[in-house]
Design a protein that fits this description.
Layout: E1 3-4, E2 8-13, H1 17-27, E3 33-36, H2 53-58, E4 71-74, E5 82-83, H3 112-115, H4 117-125, H5 143-157, H6 183-194, E6 199-201, E7 211-212, E8 218-219, H7 245-251, E9 255-258, E10 261-269, E11 272-280, E12 285-296, H8 300-309, E13 327-330, E14 337-341, E15 357-360, E16 379-384, H9 405-414, E17 418-425, E18 434-442, E19 448-453, H10 458-478, E20 482-485, E21 503-505, E22 522-523, E23 526-531, H11 546-566
Parallel strand pairs: 1-12, 2-3, 2-12, 3-9, 4-19, 12-23
Antiparallel strand pairs: 4-5, 6-15, 7-8, 10-11, 11-12, 13-21, 14-17, 14-20, 15-16, 16-17, 18-19, 22-23
Length: about 575
Amino acid sequence: MARKLPKVDVVIVGVGWGGGVIASELTRQGLTVVGLERGKERKTEDYFMVHDELRYALRYEMMQDLSKETITFRSNPNVRALPMRSYGSFLLGTGLGGSGVHWNGHTFRFLPYDFEIHSKTVERYGQKKIPEGMTIQDWGITYDQLEPYFDKFERMAGISGSENPLGGKRSQPYPTPPMKSTPSMKMFEEAAKKLNLHPYPLPSANLSEAYTNPDGISRAACQYCGYCERFGCEYGAKADPVVTVIPVAKKTGKFEIRTHSHVRRILHTGNKATGVLYTDVTTGEEIEQPADIVVLTSYVFNNSRLLLMSKLGRPYDPTTGKGVIGKNYCYQVMKGGATGFFEEKEFNNYAGAGSLGMVLDDYNGDNFDHSSLNFIHGANISVSQYGQRPIANNTVPEGTPSWGKEFKAASLKYANRTINVGAQGASMPFRYHFLDLDPTYKDAFGDPLIRITFDFEEQDRQLAAFLSDKCGDILKEMGANKIEVRGKLGPYDITPYQSTHNTGGVIMGASPETSAVNNYLQMWDAENVFVVGASSFAHNSGYNPTGTMGALSYRAAEGILKYRQSGGGMLV
């Protein structure tokens, strides 16, 4: 029998960006908060002088152990799902700070179009523009309503950047100036302007200068070491929950973090949660933590999985289109883009940072006319200089032998003579893209794994081809001697890495018939449960999700406080 602990005001499941923001906001208002994190403790000192590509980038030191818990995948409901046994398409983080520790730091705001995508698409093109089976919907909130929360997240994190000329209106400039501009970034900027496009520096959570945020947290500037993606930052220059919001919550004395705590069920009576049941993985003991309010702030897959295992909310049924938990799983279209090879020019590709780049949005959202195109939405196009670490980067032209003298010669020649212009495409939801519990495979505790049903659609193939050609045009203007355009998008393959930008499953909206949470991320079917994270996205934009997830986290924190102060009920 589980050991029952004293009740607290709020219990948080997962202590990453969402959990850290919620904890910092609630504890400052005097609420007692327990954060349950199934991974281990982390601190900046863990990464001092640890630029170990093999350990972190290739052996996944900061990622979930797939032998104990993974996902299963199938391309459609007519085939059997199989477990993901080794990392490929995306990476599942674990430990204090979650994926917010090993991210690159790209911090975009979704476009105004995104939040009203169904209404705006129909208004401009008519209902027939939306293909059969596509389940886009408005989010139940507008960009203007969310803008103050975007600003709050950016000031907390110290985002470095300058205004997007084609983005939503800002109430204030970025808190810190853009990062340095490299030769390849300058070439991209000049070429884009010659093509009448609108480039701007990539918004970065890697600080361009020393910064003290409104919470009094001071951090150092980025050193451009090139070890951001899949790594913790030894300087604290990359904004992550461990060096920003978590210390604020801990300082109040109201926040208790319990690591190695694997939450297995949300306990509830009727339409209200009473707490959570978790296992201390160091002892195997089952523990019940009662709470007035339960907040799910774990990763996309786990948010849906916990609700489904706890029988909380209505599971999505793709056959009828009814139900909401598991609905509208989306990913990202990353196959588009082009690589340019330069014979005379040479670049220092091994220096960089996770968010060092130049980007444009002329082909993102509905910033361009889709009337004659067989897709909606689009992608951001960018050139980035992350820092090409020596083991995993070895770009050579197509047709080069994969070994031997010619391979070695081409590797040396082009090591610093290639530039990639990439397109990060939006992912639209379809009726048969969803999450549910796998009927066969279980984790180390005997609980069912989450099952993904997903494949690329004609929408995605058309988008990838269109954007790849645009990337090639920019590289041509940049003066590349040889250009390889990657325009063909085949079936979704879970084997190669593409993007850890999984979204949906517990989506937000204006109606309980079509969404799981309202615009405060409060569950329609359980008023004292809030589900925070990219699981609330009703589709995925042509951007990285963290900035929008951060803004929604601050709004959810405000909603939780309103709910507490009003004594309960659904928020409006």
